[in-house]
């Protein structure tokens, strides 16, 4: 049986092990800080180990400095008006620095009427964020929906890699952000701390689009 001091020590070790298998760097740092707090309490209240107290205070100090640095850098991140509109939509759950990194994976383009963004049955080469203008969505030659300012186009391919289920064609001049799907997949693989939040946002955008399409189809039937 472990003594109270032994149980606290084991908890500290368990938190360190959990930190090693954490999926994001932010979570890893939080678990290390939690372990340091447990070890500090043990050293202060139970065993009076002043060397451990010193090391744990130093460790927590480094963690606080890193936390402050991350937040300071986040506060310095700047966006253009176009980027701010995009960040405030489906990237709102990300820290500003994370949104900055994601937006930098693509570029802003101006499209013309008749320009096709996705082809039904073909792999989708890019993810689009439509800032202005609109586009018609057709399947088997029939219009099944409309994409408007603020909509994502091609978000399902980031999650599944499937071919496009519809053709999306611009109705007129439009401004949009565009990034290749291979580039974004590599980015998400390299940034686990951002991946979950981005995938949740893309999934939510897709659900909202499907819900709107179902309502439109129901209205047509009636």
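^ structure tokens above, recovered residues below v
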């Amino acid at each position: 049986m472990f003594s109270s001091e032994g149980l606290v020590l084991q908890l500290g070790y368990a938190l360190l092990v959990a930190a090693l298998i954490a999926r994001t760097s932010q979570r890893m740092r939080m678990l290390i800080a939690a372990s340091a707090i447990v070890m500090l309490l043990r050293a202060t209240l139970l065993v009076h180990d002043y060397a451990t107290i010193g090391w744990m205070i130093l460790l927590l100090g480094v963690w606080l400095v890193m936390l402050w640095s991350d937040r300071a850098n986040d506060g310095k991140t700047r966006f253009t008006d176009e980027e701010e509109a995009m960040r405030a939509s489906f990237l709102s759950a990300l820290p500003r620095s994370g949104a900055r990194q994601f937006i930098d994976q693509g570029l802003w383009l101006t499209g013309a009427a008749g320009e096709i963004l996705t082809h039904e049955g073909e792999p989708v080469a890019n993810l689009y964020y439509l800032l202005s203008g609109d586009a018609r969505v057709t399947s088997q030659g029939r219009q099944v929906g409309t994409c408007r300012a603020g909509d994502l186009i091609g978000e399902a391919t980031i999650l599944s890699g499937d071919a496009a289920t519809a053709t999306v064609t611009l109705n007129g001049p439009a401004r949009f952000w565009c990034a290749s799907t291979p580039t974004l997949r590599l980015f998400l693989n390299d940034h686990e701390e951002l991946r979950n939040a981005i995938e949740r946002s893309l999934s939510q955008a897709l659900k909202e689009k499907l819900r709107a399409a179902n309502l439109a189809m129901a209205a047509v039937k009636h």
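Residues 69 and 147 are 40 Å apart (CA to CA).
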